[in-house]
Amino acid sequence: MAVWVVRGGKYGEQEGIALDNGVSEIRWLELPDLSPVARDSDEDSARAKLEHMYAEVYPQNSPGSQAVNRGQIWSFVRLIKKGDLILLPLKSTHAIAAGTVIGDYEYRTDLGDMVRHVHQVKWLKTDISRAAIQQDLLYSLGSVLTVFKPTRNDAQHRLQVIAEKGRDPGPGYTPLGKPDAGDGPPEAMPDLEEVAMEDIRARINAKMKGHGFARLVEAILIAEGYTTFTSPPGADGGVDILAGRGAFGFDEPRICVQVKSQDSPVDAPTVSQLLGVMSGFNVHEGLFVSWGGYTKGVEQQHKKNSFFRVRLWGAEEVIEKVFEHYEELPADIRADLPLKRIWMLVPDEDA
């Protein structure tokens, strides 16, 4: 058994389709049915077919880009087998989904216009917390590729354990049976933006747990022009921060804020409790901040029932706000989270 990472789009736009339909999929939508590549018993012939198909559809791509993308497509179509493990990093919840491949490559036209190339997958877990994965292994998951097989830092062994038990056994783990390393390409150069984000997440997680995380959220709200009151450490009565516009916080919008710094995702009943708290304070708008994200279905239920009353922030939103207001944050927070802005060339988007 091999362990593969197959991403759900640059912005996570394909995650819901994959999880809801029990598939793992890749884009490259313009490519035709790749079954001739998947089924050809002659590997050289299969590679020639894929090279021809790709060059016909994407002639504008550089030779290097064509080679890299063909390698990913080859891995998905030919090398991923029934019984292999698929990991899907989720942008929407910042968790990781894990599933077992139960079908060979298929070309599908029944899942909408944005899905064509798939494997059927039985999703086993959809809420593996990144906080349960040690930093060296997170780096191994941070490739720029859409499809790859993590190999650095004993990744194949450790990811099997994480998928089964939800925890990272750490480097040097020696399993009873080694997973099949296969012959697919390992992860390429890391995505520097993703690596930096993981470092920042780890720093916030280490330095700002509990009341410290609430203080970070309060500092962001102050930078956005709110006057705030934060509950002292301990029982908070269901609200961590009260915030309002104006010098005294009397102006609209006035909001109740609930903050959760735990690594595990928050469920719908917990989010719903904020609505009751808001009524008690005679406040019409709220903000729920969950560092560990939200369980499946929370955001959909939120849009249906409370979109115009409550906003949901996860780790991504908090970090984006930190970037936006970093220079306005208190000196002690900036000391605990020292950041430096850098510039780098954005790679061409070929697919």
UniProtKB/TrEMBL annotation:
<dbReference type="GO" id="GO:0015666">
    <property type="term" value="F:restriction endodeoxyribonuclease activity"/>
</dbReference>
<dbReference type="GO" id="GO:0009307">
    <property type="term" value="P:DNA restriction-modification system"/>
</dbReference>
<feature type="region of interest" description="Disordered">
    <location>
        <begin position="165"/>
        <end position="186"/>
    </location>
</feature>
<dbReference type="InterPro" id="IPR052906">
    <property type="entry name" value="Type_IV_Methyl-Rstrct_Enzyme"/>
</dbReference>
<dbReference type="InterPro" id="IPR011856">
    <property type="entry name" value="tRNA_endonuc-like_dom_sf"/>
</dbReference>
<dbReference type="InterPro" id="IPR016984">
    <property type="entry name" value="UCP031853"/>
</dbReference>
<keyword id="KW-0540">Nuclease</keyword>
<keyword id="KW-0255">Endonuclease</keyword>
<dbReference type="GO" id="GO:0003677">
    <property type="term" value="F:DNA binding"/>
</dbReference>
<dbReference type="InterPro" id="IPR011335">
    <property type="entry name" value="Restrct_endonuc-II-like"/>
</dbReference>
<protein>
    <submittedName>
        <fullName>Restriction endonuclease</fullName>
    </submittedName>
</protein>
<dbReference type="Pfam" id="PF04471">
    <property type="entry name" value="Mrr_cat"/>
</dbReference>
<feature type="domain" description="Restriction endonuclease type IV Mrr">
    <location>
        <begin position="207"/>
        <end position="320"/>
    </location>
</feature>
<dbReference type="InterPro" id="IPR007560">
    <property type="entry name" value="Restrct_endonuc_IV_Mrr"/>
</dbReference>
<dbReference type="GO" id="GO:0043590">
    <property type="term" value="C:bacterial nucleoid"/>
</dbReference>
<keyword id="KW-0378">Hydrolase</keyword>
